[in-house]
Structures are given as structure tokens and as C-alpha cells.
Amino acid sequence: QVQLVESGGGLVQAGGSLRLSCAASGRIFSINDMGWYRQAPGNQRELVARMPRSGYTNYADSVKGRFTISRDNAKNTVYLQMNSLKPEDTAVYYCNGNIWVAGRGADDYWGQGTQVTVSS
């Protein structure tokens, strides 16, 4: 079993900052990509940022220059630093990891989601 547990969501005023964390635990052999997605009411889940174990990161155009994804491979943790937040960033944010489980191969796992609300 693998679990992804997010933390750091909350309510913030426009222009403010939040930092999300997501820690993976369980029978992890290795972690490939890790990333963040979000889903606002009435919308489909969309990519926010994604990062391989090492190398090039990928950001949604709407968050470039404001959000920064990072990871600590030793802690199996991925972070999302969100600055200059806008009301349109309001959504449930989900952590995702492509994780290699011992004896089972690689698969995508999701966290339970954390609410981010940006007031105008």
C-alpha cells in the first residue's frame, strides 16, 4: 500500500502565499514523477506542476512565474510554493506520484486533496 498525504491548504487573501506539502509512504521502491493537480467546482482536474525525479519541470501557463514545485527525494515529499495567489487559483489541490512499489511495478497514486481558497 502507498499513501500520499497532503497538507498546507487553507484560506488566504489575493496576493498572499501558501506552501503545500505531500509526503508519500508505504512499500515504495522508487518514485518517478511527482506533481500537483487541481480541480475547481464544475471544472475538470488540471495539471498545475509536475516534476520528474531529476530534470525538467512542467508548469501550467496560468501558474508560471508564481508557483514553484520542488521535491525532497530522501523524504519522498513534493512541495508546491504558491505566491501571488489569485481568486481563480481556488480549488482542491491533489498530489500525484508515479510510484514503483516493490513486487508490483509502477502506478499512479493520488492524495486525498487539500482545499485552497483565495479571497478577493
Descriptive notes:
The protein is mostly beta strands and 120 residues long. Helices cover 0% and strands 62% of the residues. The protein contains no helices and eleven strands. The protein has strands spanning 2-7, 10-13, 18-26, 28-39, 46-51, 58-59, 67-72, 77-82, 91-101, 105-110, 114-119. Strands 2, 4, 5, 6, 9, 10 and 11 form a seven-stranded mixed beta sheet that branches. β9 (91-101) and β10 form a beta hairpin. The radius of gyration is 14 Å and the shape is elongated. The mean pLDDT is 95.
Give the helices and strands, then pairings.
Layout: E1 2-7, E2 10-13, E3 18-26, E4 28-39, E5 46-51, E6 58-59, E7 67-72, E8 77-82, E9 91-101, E10 105-110, E11 114-119
Parallel strand pairs: 2-11
Antiparallel strand pairs: 1-3, 3-8, 4-5, 4-9, 5-6, 7-8, 9-10, 9-11
Task: Provide the descriptors you would attach to this structure in a database record.
single chain; 120 residues; mainly beta; 7-stranded mixed beta sheet; 4-stranded antiparallel beta sheet; 11 strands
Short description:
The chain is mainly β. The protein is 0% helix and 62% strand.
The tally of strands reads: 11
State the major sheet. Answer: 7 strands, mixed
The SS-based structural class is mainly beta
How would you sum up the global shape? elongated
Radius of gyration: 14 Å
DSSP helical segment count:
0
Oligomer: single chain
Low-confidence stretches: none
Mean of pLDDT:
95
Distance between the termini: 40 Å
Elements, N to C (H/E): EEEEEEEEEEE
Strand percent estimate: over 45%
The amount of helix comes to under 10%
